[in-house]
Amino acid sequence: MGEVYHVLIPRDPQFLPNEPDAVLQVVVRMYPAAENITLDISAGAELRDCGAHLEAIRCPSCHADIAIEDWQELMSGDYDEPRNCFRLTPVTVSCCGHRSPLNELIYVAPMGFSRCAISILSPGREALGVEELAQLSLVVGSPVMLIDRLL
Ligand SMILES: [Zn+2]
User: Fold this and answer.
1) Cα 131 to Cα 65: distance, rounded to the nearest angstrom
2) How remote is the CA of residue 23 from the centroid of ligand 1, in Å?
């Protein structure tokens, strides 16, 4: 059995909540049975992956599958070494020549890029529903998404 995480991030990769402590308190109330909850804030956008749940990456324009090797190449090209983060400037996908930042590709299961992430280890409950995500988004100050991560 692997480790299961729910990772909550703002959909806007650069967004930081004004009151991270208040956000953390809400998440703690939503996950009373969680093993551990941590809030991570980094200087630039980092990949927040879904681990073993990753099945496919698709082009947002023509929906063709993007091979993992191609995606890894796009990722390296977008990575800002000195700043240790992703620039998320538009990259060109080979299927149809569409230009899109890496965070706007289609990831199955969902994953994302963010400066701020709350990781919940062994959540002890199902994924947050639409209403809970809306409630949390209000406290965060920007729409939030959930990444179901299996390590
Ligand atoms: Zn395409």
Assistant:
1) 32
2) 37
